[in-house]
Amino acid sequence: WTDAGNLGDSMKLIYRGENGFSETFTTEGPPLLITAADGLYGYDNSVHTVTRHMQDGCNYISGQLSARRIGITVQIFGNVVSTRTRIMKALSPKTLGKFELIRGDYKREIKCVIEKISVNTSDGSIINIMALCPNPFWREERESRVDIAAWTKKFKYPLTVEQGIGFIFGERTEMRVINVLNTGDVGVGMRVVFSAMAAVTNPAIVDAMDETKYLRMTCTMQPGDMITISTGMGEKRVTLMRSATGKEENAFGMLVPTSTFMQLGVGDNLLRYEADSGEDWLCTAVFFYPSYLGV
Prior knowledge:
This protein is mainly beta. The chain is 4% helix and 45% strand. The chain contains 1 helix and 26 strands.
């Protein structure tokens, strides 16, 4: 555990539960003062190796990060009983939540579930909070978006239309390949969204550096239809929203079986979109959360 005085710059740690409640803990002072913390930094890597007969040392096979455990010690100022009751309600072990860490403009978040809350003083003014984070990586607060193919709006006020020339309401990007830059510490899954402005057949997104890796659909999209493919660990989904009905349906069966649920590696990722027909009417966007080993 690290004393609050050694945690660096002033820090806020906000817990937000799916039950709609939240609590803010800070190293700056009352009413909920963080006096010590553990698990915010670093990681626990289980290294798998194999040693052969008569071999000195070993051969590396793989590494696997354990779930992250975050612990904080908090001193309560003011009405201890009512504040502690409020904290217990907000940090319910029956709902999932997340911690948001803030240092000035620096913000990171991590999903978690509360494991334990205990009292370690006779008056109950100091409590220990333990949380388990199944995914050990901190991520940026906002999802990054990269448009591979989209229309750029040109309409703005004041509006001037020159006679005989007309006015351009929007322009389509001409690039078929774009670099998706992952600034995080680790590879991450992504969310690919195909939107059709007219009929589009068999849309796909391809790794431009390794064309054996792709996500390809076998369907015809009508104007206004939207396909979403999620490739994150434990979050793999394929859905189709039909504009005619406004209903979302499971579209896993429309995904070509040889497709790869691609991950965005650290650094540059060159992706290309394509379709068998209607390619010029296909808008494609990639969404992802850069993720980090510590804060």
